Amino acid sequence: MARRSAAAGLCLMTILVAGPLAADPSGFLHPLGPIAEIQRTELVWATVAVMVAILPVLLGTPFIMWRYRRTNTKATYRPQWHFDTWLEVGMWGLPIVIVAFLGIWLAQATFRIDPYRTIDAKMAEELNIELAGPQVDMDVVGLDWKWLFLYPDQGVASMGEMVMPVGHPVAMRLTTDTVMQAFLVPRIGGQIYAMPRMATRLNLIADREGRTEAINTQYTGLGMSGQRAEVRAVSPGAYRSWISRAQEGPVLDDETYAIIAQSGSVADAREALGLDGTTPILFRLEATDIFDRVIDRYQNPEGVARDAQPGSPTYNLSSGVLPEADQ
Predict the structure, then answer these.
(1) For the range 101-107, what are the long-range contacts, defined as Cβ-Cβ under 8 Å and sequence gap of 24 or more?
(2) pTM (predicted TM-score)
(3) Is residue 154 within 8 Å of residue 170, measured between CB atoms?
(4) Does the structural domain 2-112 have CATH classification 1.20.1330?
């Protein structure tokens, strides 16, 4: 009876925890791309492997407590017992096998979907997908508390929204013009950190249309929880239409960048620019070297002055203009 109750309780707990995750169509269990699918598979198998060791403990503990309770006179009483070979083999051998299995398998999967690995024809074949077109290069700058997405080849930029064409690899460079941040699009790919003065890389691809979110998972202050951007995987035709619409937006030049680099949300940036509406901000990109100049800001051995540092309480628009490319 006790074993049945324990098993029923464990099943109920699993359903209560896993049910909402599985039912949420925007969650990471419903991937939009092959990389996220592999990560989901890794999670499932890692959970199953760990449960092999955890379930006997969860089920055995209440059984042992009930079976060997003081009032049960039928249970064997062995006050001199101190060792059992098979018990020791199970307690130590099983975890060792599980750790070895997970270590080897996850290491292979990690190298297979290395975020720095370019999604070329060879990798596409490994992922069992077909490339629909050329690679899209994208630069991402983390600010307090928003993401700026730069499309240098297309001459556009966006804030609050990231759009990618289905079937096209997206090669991202990431940095931050404030404190360290972490960029994550759960339904499409993995997480990568972004830090001042350096560029990290992330390669993504979506094989179906859909919407999800990019989030910052690194604590960066009061507005961190709201640092989200809508991510849309669209058809190549819809992507071209979006590019055309963005090219009609306001110009993203040095002065505009200094304004949006202030601490605040996308809505705050929109208000500071004097724009109406609540949709993401689309820019025509005048300077295609903004990403490199953001990195150059932190190359000075003397550091960045407080009034020139985005995110600083004393940040000043005139001082916060990015350095010239040759400095």
Answers:
(1) 101/49, 102/46, 102/49, 102/50, 105/45, 106/42, 106/46
(2) 0.85
(3) no
(4) no
Domain ranges of the chain: 2-112, 131-308
31 burial type by CB count under 10 A (0-12 exposed, 13-18 middle, 19+ buried): buried
Residue spans of beta strands (DSSP E) within the chain: 136-143, 146-151, 156-159, 161-165, 170-176, 181-184, 191-194, 200-204, 210-216, 228-234, 251-252, 281-285
Q: What is the pLDDT of residues 136-159, one digit of tens each?
A: 999 999 999 999 999 999 999 999
Structure-block tokens of residue 176: 């931050």
The sign of the torsion formed by the CA atoms of 257, 258, 263, 264 equals: negative
- Report CA Rg, the chain: 26
Q: Which 3 state secondary structure label does DSSP give 60?
A: helix
The CATH number assigned to the domain with range 131-308 reads 2.60.40.420
| 161 contacts 197 by C-beta, under 8 angstroms | no
For residues 21-25, average pLDDT: 58
The answer to whether residues 287 and 252 touch, using CB atoms and an 8 Å cutoff, is yes
Token look-up 């295609």 returns 288
Task: State whether residue 217 is helix, strand or coil.
Answer: coil
